[in-house]
Amino acid sequence: MEEKFKVEGMTCASCQAHVNQAVSKLKGVVDCNVSLVEKNMVVNFDENQLSEDQICQAVEKAGYKASIFIEKSYKEMMREKQAEITKRRNRLIVTLIFTAALMIFCMWHMFASDFNWWFFTMDPLIVIPVQIVLLVPILALNFGYFTRGFKALITLKPNMDSLIAIGSFASVVYGLYSFIYIIYLTINGDPNGMIHSLSHNIYFESAGTIVGLVSLGKYFESRSVDKTMSSIYRLMELSPEEANVIENGKEVTKKIEKVAIGDKIIIRPGNRIPLDGIIESGYGEMDESSISGEAIPVYKKENDKVISGTICKQGTFVFKVTTIGKDTTLNKIITMVQEAANSKAKIAKLVDKVALIFVPVVILIALITFGVWMIISKADVNTSFNYAISVLVISCPCALGLATPVAIMVGTGKGAENGILIKSAEALENLASIDTVVFDKTGTITKGIMEVSDISLPQEELSNICSLENCSDHPLSKAVYNYASKNNIPFKDVSSFTYVPGEGIKGQIEDDAYLIGNKKMCLNYLTADAEKAYQNLSNQGKTVMFVIKNGNYVGYIGISDSLKETSLQAVRDLKNLDRDVYMLTGDNINAAKYIASKSEIEHYIGDVKPDQKLDVIKKLQQEGKKVCMVGDGINDSPSLIQADVGMAIGAGSDVALDSADIVLIRSDLADVVSAIELSKHVVRTIKGNLFWAFFYNAIAIPLAAGCLSFAPLNITLNPMIASLAMALSSVTVVLNALRLNFFKRKNYNNDKETSKNVI
């Protein structure tokens, strides 16, 4: 079974790695995915070998707290988050006030002492207790760093909190030691003038500023991370909390959780559809832009399906609920985006390995730094201590831990906003390296809807022909019916009608007998002109319907599946991105050739069955190509699964969510290009974040250790500057990921790019 857990106490990549390690090693765990950003984990385990309580206990042994994740409504979740933010902000404000007071007081006293401003100078026995009074509230308000840090240290799984706790605690201990020594010298005399020197090396302000500045950085980091989840929040906001249900002829307002399958809900103008269902009475003009991206309202009538998250613009109707809870279209999309945001890219595995050893290595470097400087400075404890503390607090496992997940979260969220549903971080990462894109034809490159493309009939015959075709449900007949509707061709009464499977139809209107069908049905009546037309249209992949009236050839109707408006430009863009483009279709080679030429695709194969499509994908992969398969997600399922990245192209609730890695809601090939470009932006951002995180630590740690403090550079850092640098590094990584919010999808309909939100 799969279970989601809430995890408390995680602050950095080391925390995430330790929780993952603690759970993954349990017998019965198939897979464990821990999210540092959302502070949760999803565990796939054998319930016969393991229980939820045992998983929670394993997390607690690692130094953290876990509990079963409870799904909450959007408003309830926002209330809790706002309360948490308010509490954290208030604590931070008080912390910064005392931190500022502590820094000002310490700096003022040191300057006054150095420049002999006797009227500002105070006795150390007064100054130091004041510092302690100002420091205590800072430590008390942020005591979680110490409890979490030392608990992790005791369990031999140190994390970022451990570094902060060790640095601050050591500063406090050294400050107390110096203060006690000053009291001793005051009582017993100070022949060597050590009191003045010791009073300059009280590290209480360092302890306070380390905690204060790190808390400031963590606050900005958490607010920035919240912004990365804005797309998921917007999705959740689409679902109303209540519905107006018809019960015993009366209208009753119910919480969505209380609505059951089969309940009837009334919808009025301005109402948002709470659950999926089918209209039983009435009508509505539905704004489905939040799901399909189509700006034009869709007319819905009796027996039509309505989709959760969409809005009724006009009309009133009652619909019967067909799906509830996680099975609704909107909730499936929300779940998909959340799972993708929490999943791990392959590149993140490197971070996990580094994170497990990062903090222990930093602590070791700090100890080595202290020992080396004790030798270099000839046992100058103050100098050695300063460099060792700086090493501890400047090291930033947070930047490493946030480098990948925040970029994935923003990227998948931005994809959802633009109608591109990405199911996993791995799919998003793989898409950037795709060099070959394979398209199915029908419904992918073409509209998948048969339309009248050519017609050669006398005007007076159109009404009769359309009237006969209106009697059939065949797709070709529907194409003729749609043509008649668009051109306002009137229908007549039909005297008799017969459908001939595989050939066409026979019928009579008044005294005239008609045959309307393929070449097989009408072969004996065709003229040379008819044969010529047939050859010409067949070469274009079109279906030809001949019309015979009273035994005489009258004319023909050409029917074809036309190219989507954006397909040609999408193919051109893929070529500009250096991607090879292929087309596979079950249609005959003539149809394949015609559509391929229209869409400028050089590589195409016709008469291909679904299993043969799979063989083509395998062959391309054997040639060393990275293949993306784009199909309708139903009959192309084997190919979609086999490809390095499978894209299902479909609209709304009809999308095939199971077989593909990525779902393009709009059925628009422009989104194939957009998805590839988005993946390139995300991967580039991840690599940039990881480079910055590794580069920062590679430069910052030697700098903090005093490697550049020698002439002629003389560059040194104190713990306060080090803690500020550490805080800024993780914020920088998150802000870099937030740049992905400026991504814009291609919109060929407006002949320009747009960032219009879809979901």
From TrEMBL:
It comes from the Bacteria. Residues 1-67 form the HMA domain. One of its GO terms (biological process) is copper ion homeostasis. One of its GO terms (cellular component) is plasma membrane. Keywords: ATP-binding, Cell membrane, Copper, Copper transport, Ion transport, Membrane, Metal-binding, Nucleotide-binding, Phosphoprotein, Translocase, Transmembrane, Transmembrane helix, Transport. InterPro entries: ATPase_P-typ_cyto_dom_N, ATPase_P-typ_P_site, ATPase_P-typ_TM_dom_sf, ATPase_P-typ_transduc_dom_A_sf, ATPase_P-type_domA, HAD-like_sf, HAD_sf, Heavy-metal-associated_CS. It catalyses: Cu(+)(in) + ATP + H2O = Cu(+)(out) + ADP + phosphate + H(+). Gene3D superfamilies: 3.30.70.100, Calcium-transporting ATPase, cytoplasmic domain N, Calcium-transporting ATPase, cytoplasmic transduction domain A, HAD superfamily/HAD-like. Involved in copper export. Belongs to the cation transport ATPase (P-type) (TC 3.A.3) family. Type IB subfamily. This is P-type Cu(+) transporter. It comes from Candidatus Scatoplasma merdavium.
